[in-house]
Design a protein that fits this description.
heterodimer; A: about 250 residues; six-stranded mixed β-sheet; four-stranded antiparallel β-sheet; about 35% helix; B: about 450 residues; Butyryl-CoA Dehydrogenase, subunit A, domain 3; MetI-like fold; three-stranded antiparallel β-sheet; about 75% helix
Chain lengths: ~250, ~450
């Protein structure tokens, strides 16, 4: 298994509070990796260190090393905009821009300098197809994105992230605000995405992790308790705390 | 203590209380009816004094007034007659409705009866205009105790009769009444502006008035095209200068400023809104006007008092409106939009111009329109820097705006001149209405777009 992202001895502080404690993990390329754990355990924070969305938080201090394809992303010479282009992100609540569907998808390519109308059309179609949304919306590309249903909006956000051609997709509880049918569609989508992308998903839902993830990391109080193949974690947890969490006895 | 809600004893108590309220309302209503026959208004024309009751207002033809040059009959406006008659009919209706057990409708009737003195007050002021035409400068109208009692008594009666329905109903009605007060003032002002402004149009002719290029009060030539164009030029100029500065300031405050610095700049801008306009005028007179006069390329072309000076001072004055409305709407843009944009690899600057500002655009537009309203209506500061000659607008020439035209001449104008000034007020009012209606329309449209 080829490693895509490598995290070594990562500590993260919000002011005096230490949110991540000595995280170390190797995330494989073209697999789905799930972060599970109770609320406040640091899984979302850990996800955001990968595209440096924590930079915007005041008083946030990071030590340790995160590399993507061997490049240290916390190196002062790193271009954050290029990093974020490579590591797209989908948020917990669908957050399409208040623009047309087309402009939502074309936003990313445009800010990265693509002006050619034909090229943009192609990207929009391609991204919507990848996000399994094309057939539902191809007739209303010029309508406001806010008119879509919650599940469609979330797939639009995935399409928008795919439009800048990332190789990593970070998903922060992408289905927690959606109904079961929309959730199912997005899970199917993730299954397809793993062929081209390295997907990391934060989820509260252990069944979801069991259904879609190749590997799973269990976070507790800012530490990784266990990080292994999903099957072995759910069938044969090594740590007693993991077992208690996945069997629903706490958290 | 009993907790039964419908005990007979309790019902009796409420019944008793209600009877007291009802009785009091009826007595006060009867006093209102009585007030109809008591001395209501006192008119003083030069040295003749008339004290008339509301009954007389409704029945007599008018007052004979003797002026130095002319003398004549000053008739009582039709609306005055109607309102004083309403002033006696409405309390009677209220009392009857109370007996018919319709307390809410009775309350409405009482409130309306309380409003009648206000309508009398407004309509009788047209007598003042009529008298001025007879060349009598001194007239005064005093409203005597019965008219004031009508106002207070009507409201008290309304409260009492609605109160019989219970406290909750009373509270609701009070909210309604206060909202009627604000809406009512708007309606009254509108009606009055149109009533006062239209006679001169009939006399001068609408085209002549709006498109006439000369304003010469002594010669009786009233054309306000220079004033209209100067007002428009001043406003457009102020907006062109003020909007970019205002929006970028707001972006700085809402998006990029360090919180400590924002805490410093924000109150400074708020302070700008609180400075009285006459102080802006001082600043313009002492700084802007001399600066324009001595600015090398302009030297010998201008005395300094000019359209340019007005534009500059107005641009500063519209800043706080634009900044605060824009800042508020930028802050209302969900953080999720910015996160999404940054996560796609957009730079913070690109995020501001491509996501935050477009998302806030209806709010920003609303701010700009409010700024337009402020600029069109500004009077004092402009008087002090515009030069006030009714020229066609030129950037370095002296100008007179609609507002300053009224303010400069109102104190000594009489007759048609005075009415023409009212008509300028009407034109200004229409301008402001257009601005406000477009404001409402745009903010509504913005809301619809977000909800779509």
């Amino acid at each position: 298994m080829e490693t895509k992202i490598s995290i070594q001895d990562l500590n993260l502080f919000y002011g005096d509070f230490q949110a991540l404690k000595g995280i170390g993990m190797e995330i494989p390329k073209n697999k789905v990796t799930a972060f599970i754990g109770p609320s406040g355990c640091g899984k979302s924070t850990c996800l955001k260190t990968i595209n440096r969305m924590n930079d915007m938080v005041e008083n946030c201090k990071i030590t340790g090393k995160v590399t993507i394809d061997g490049e240290d992303i916390y190196d002062p010479r790193t271009d954050v905009t290029l990093l974020r282009k490579r590591a797209g992100m989908v948020f917990q609540k669908p957050n399409p821009f208040p623009m047309t569907l087309y402009d939502n998808i074309a936003y990313g390519p445009r800010v990265h300098g693509i002006k050619n109308k034909q090229k943009l059309d192609e990207i929009v179609e391609q991204s919507l197809r990848s996000a399994a949304l094309w057939d539902e919306v191809k007739d209303r590309l010029k309508k406001s994105a806010l008119g879509l249903s919650g599940g469609q909006q979330q797939r639009l956000c995935i399409a928008r992230a795919l439009a800048v051609e990332p190789d990593i997709l970070l998903m922060d509880e992408p289905t927690s605000a959606l109904d079961p049918i929309s959730t199912l569609k997005i899970e199917d989508l993730m299954d397809d995405l793993r062929a081209k992308y390295t997907v990391i998903i934060v989820t509260h839902n252990m069944q979801q992790a069991a259904r879609i993830a190749d590997r799973t990391a269990f976070f507790l109080l800012g530490e990784i308790v266990e990080y292994t193949d999903t099957l072995s974690m759910f069938n044969n947890p090594k740590d007693e705390r993991t077992e208690r969490y996945i069997t629903g006895r706490f958290g | 203590m009993s907790i039964a809600m419908n005990s007979a004893e309790n019902a009796l108590k409420i019944q008793k209380k209600n009877n007291v309220k009802k009785g009091l309302a009826i007595v006060l209503g009867l006093i209102s009816v009585l007030a109809f026959f008591l001395p209501y208004i006192q008119f003083v024309f030069k040295n003749t004094t008339y004290v008339v009751s509301a009954f007389q207002l409704a029945t007599i033809r008018g007052f004979r007034v003797h002026g130095p040059a002319l003398s004549g009959l000053v008739t009582i406006p039709f609306l005055t007659r109607i309102s004083v008659v309403a002033g006696v009919l409405l309390p009677i209706a209220g009392i009857v409705l109370l007996f018919l057990k319709r307390p809410v409708m009775a309350g409405t009737a009482f409130v309306l009866s309380g409003i009648t003195p206000l309508i009398v007050l407004i309509t009788t002021s047209s007598i003042q205009t009529a008298v001025t035409q007879l060349n009598i400068s001194k007239i005064s109208i005093a409203y005597l105790w019965p008219s004031i009692y009508m106002l207070a008594g009507g409201i008290v009666c309304a409260i009492l009769s609605i109160w019989t329905q219970g406290t909750e109903k009373l509270a609701e009605s009070i909210f309604l009444v206060f909202s009627c007060v604000s809406v009512g003032s708007v309606i009254l002002i509108t009606v009055y502006i149109f009533a006062a402004g239209s006679p001169a149009i009939l006399q001068i002719g609408l085209g002549q008035f709006l498109f006439g290029r000369t304003w010469n009060a002594e010669a009786g030539v009233f054309g306000i095209l220079p004033l209209i164009l100067s007002s428009i030029a001043g406003t457009v100029g102020a907006i062109l200068l003020g909007v970019p500065v205002g929006i970028l300031t707001a972006v700085f405050l809402a998006e990029t400023a360090k919180p400590r610095l924002a805490r410093l700049v924000h109150p400074a801008i708020e302070l700008l809104a609180g400075i009285p306009s006459v102080i802006y005028g001082f600043f313009g007179m002492l700084v802007i006007v001399p600066a324009i006069r001595s600015f090398p390329p302009f030297r010998n072309h201008t005395i300094g008092d000019s359209l340019l000076a007005s534009i500059l001072i107005l641009a500063i004055m519209v800043l706080p409106t634009i900044v605060s409305v824009t800042e508020t709407s930028l802050k209302a843009v969900p953080q999720a939009y910015r996160e999404a944009s940054l996560a796609l690899g957009a730079t913070p600057t690109a995020t501001i111009f491509k996501v935050s500002i477009p998302a806030a655009k209806s709010g920003i537009l609303a701010g700009v329109i409010l700024g337009v309203g402020r600029a069109i209506g500004e009077t004092m500061a402009v008087i002090m820097v515009a030069g006030n000659v009714a020229n066609m607008p030129s950037i370095l020439g002296t100008v007179r705006l609609l507002t300053t035209g009224i303010a400069m001449e109102m104190s000594y104008a009489s007759g048609l001149h005075r009415q023409a000034l009212f008509t300028i007020g009407l034109v200004l009012f229409v301008f402001i209405m257009i601005v406000n209606i477009s404001f409402t329309y745009i903010s509504k449209k913005g809301v619809q777009m977000d909800a779509e």
